[in-house]
Design brief:
The protein is an all-alpha fold. It is 78% helix and 1% strand. The chain has a two-stranded antiparallel sheet with strand order 1-2. Strand 1 and strand 2 form a beta hairpin. The two termini are 20 Å apart.
């Protein structure tokens, strides 16, 4: 018996996600080229642009999670993609006519960041509406992660080629087209029914049935209450956050380490990115098999241990330069595989453990923790490297990872088999 609730919409969801990932990656790369080569942004302005793009994950994750649960994930996906198409289309039109300016770029990138947060949150909430069962959910999540990884390989190269050969406007136009395809494919997802927030109640005067809505403060705290009550979900969230913090620190430190301190060359630096991307794709392929054979807690325990060890490799490279070619290559491969598989496992667990009507807010709380620290980590790593030297942030990185691993082990040592958010009578909420 199939565990796919809406098999005819599964392909639509994957097409929409893949087109969205490709269009966003293309836009993100080409806008970086434009602001440096055409608008003459300084390093500070580029940093501010990146911060504006990621700031919504810190400030708006919870409100958007409430909206996703209230309006329905499929509606939010469609609306966010349409707004994203409009914003990228405006960027294309303004750049093609020579009217794109600094303040306008800041505004458009901020809008793109908000819509990206909304669509990613809604995609997470939509997973259990399409598939049930650990294997099917893991396969669905892995397919979406694979699309992101493939887009991360192809889109930057394509953007550079188009910008060099035909001009940046053509790359922007292609990004608009890809996002348009994503929005069109997502329209069919409106056929998926919305999860009911609460039991219906009968109005005493009119006799009409209505849905009782909790106070706004309760809704704002709801996702964090779920994390507080499910120590395992909170532990996996903190572990994923540690991985993302490391990723953000790596984005700031790795170029300096590889190109300046170790002088390994631009070709090798580019190769590291390719190794990480292909390793991520490999991880999405093997993730369903790994998660089906290893219990979720054991998988995260292994991931925590491996992640803690791998995080020391950049410091080893700095301390022992002759082995840097090997250690940095091993770091790129192992970090990407570990982070990808644990991310997929965490999303799969959340999709099974949390009730569908609460998943948007739970995903928002998780996203606020896992992504909200990214801009601060990136800025902090760079500041530490500039003030006290590269070795200090490279030491802080594995230290934070080890602390997160210890916290995870402590928080989940006496984990109960059933989450507070799991309905024991519901077959779609089978404990992992």
């Amino acid at each position: 018996m199939t565990s796919i609730k809406h098999p005819h919409l599964l392909r639509r969801a994957l097409v929409s996600n893949a087109s969205d990932a490709a269009g966003y990656q293309l836009y993100d790369t080409i806008i970086a080229i434009i602001v440096v080569t055409s608008l003459g942004f300084s390093a500070t302005q580029v940093g501010l642009l990146n911060a504006l793009g990621s700031l919504p994950f810190l400030l708006l994750a919870v409100p958007i999670g409430i909206i996703v649960d209230s309006w329905g994930a499929s509606r939010i996906i469609v609306v966010s993609l349409l707004v994203k198409v409009a914003a990228t289309g405006a960027t294309f039109a303004l750049y093609a006519t020579g009217l794109l300016e600094t303040i306008t770029t800041f505004m458009l990138v901020t809008i793109i960041g908000i819509t990206t947060l909304a669509s990613e949150n809604a995609q997470t909430a939509l997973v259990p509406r399409i598939a049930t069962g650990k294997r099917e959910i893991t396969s669905f999540v892995s397919s979406m992660a694979a699309a992101d990884r493939i887009a991360g390989i192809i889109a930057p190269a394509l953007a550079g080629i188009l910008a060099a050969a035909s001009g940046s406007a053509y790359a922007l136009g292609l990004a608009v087209a890809l996002l348009g395809i994503s929005a069109i494919a997502a329209v069919r997802l409106l056929a998926i029914p919305r999860a009911v927030e609460a039991p219906e109640a009968t109005d005493s005067q009119s006799g009409e049935k209505r849905i009782a809505k909790p106070p706004l403060r309760t809704q704002l705290n709801h996702g964090f209450v779920i994390l507080k009550n499910d120590r395992f979900l909170l532990g996996t969230t903190l572990l994923v956050a540690a991985g993302n913090i490391g990723l953000a620190m790596g984005d700031s430190l790795e170029p300096i380490l590889v190109l300046r301190e170790l002088d390994l060359g631009k070709i090798y630096f580019g190769l590291l990115g390719t190794l990480a991307a292909f390793s991520g794709i490999l991880a999405t392929v093997i993730a369903p098999r790994v998660t089906s054979r290893i219990t979720t807690r054991r998988l995260f325990v292994i991931g925590a241990i491996v992640q803690s060890g791998v995080a020391t490799l950049p410091l080893v490279s700095l301390m022992v330069p002759p082995v840097a070619y090997f250690t940095m290559g091993a770091f790129s491969v192992l970090w990407s595989i570990t982070l990808t598989i644990t991310n997929i496992a965490g999303t799969t667990y959340a999709a099974q453990a949390v009730r569908e009507e609460s998943l948007g807010r739970a995903a928002a709380a998780r996203r606020m923790i896992t992504m909200g620290s990214v801009p601060l980590a990136a800025l902090g790593a760079g500041a530490l490297a500039d003030t006290v030297g590269l070795a200090v942030p490279l030491l802080v990185w594995p230290t934070l990872t080890i602390v997160a691993a210890i916290m995870f082990l402590a928080m989940t040592s006496k984990r109960s088999e059933t989450s507070p958010e799991v309905d024991p009578a519901s077959p779609s909420r089978t404990p992992l």
